[in-house]
Amino acid sequence: MIAPSKLSDPAVRAFVTAVNAHDQAAFAQLLTADASMSDDGSDRDLAEWTDKEIWSCNGHMDVVSESDGGHRLVVDYRNDTWGEMRTAWRFTVTGDGRISRFETGQA
After folding, report:
1. Which of 71, 62, 64, 76 lies closest to 17 in space, CA to CA?
2. Phi, psi for residue 78 in degrees, rounded to 5
3. 33, 54, 79, 85: least CB-packed within 10 angstroms?
4. How far apart are CA 38 and CA 62, in angstroms?
5. How far apart are the C-alpha atoms of 99 and 5, rounded to whole Å?
């Protein structure tokens, strides 16, 4: 596993840290105003998805590997709803260091 503090991209590092700390305020500050996301190839409402898949069910990310300058992760993701699964994450980070899009799905 890769400790979140060792992840290459600062925005992605902060994203994983916020998820694992269940810090919704820090998470929201990382995203652009028009941020979007997809799960298993389908665009989702970001607020609804994060509430359902992260905040209300204790989501947690254990990073297995990173690539593409830290913008792609393989993660053992777990929450109280689905248990643990291996997932792939891809992040689009803006020039000012905020996340404008993330995509996740089973790896």
Report:
1. 62
2. -140, 150
3. 33
4. 20
5. 18
Question: Residue 14 in contact with residue 25, Cβ under 8 Å?
Answer: no
Q: Contact at 8 Å (CB) between 91 and 46?
A: no
34-62: pLDDT as tens digits: 999 999 999 999 999 999 999 999 999 99
Percentage of residues in the chain having pLDDT higher than 70: 100
Residue 69: its H or E element: none
Parallel, antiparallel or unpaired: strands 99-106 and 31-39: parallel
Cα 87 from Cα 64, distance rounded (Å): 10
pTM exceeds 0.85: yes
pLDDT computed for residue 33 by the predictor: 96
89/105 Cα distance (integer angstroms): 7
Q: What does the block give as tokens for 98?
A: 């905020």
Structure tokens at 22: 């269940």
Token couple for 55: 């905040």
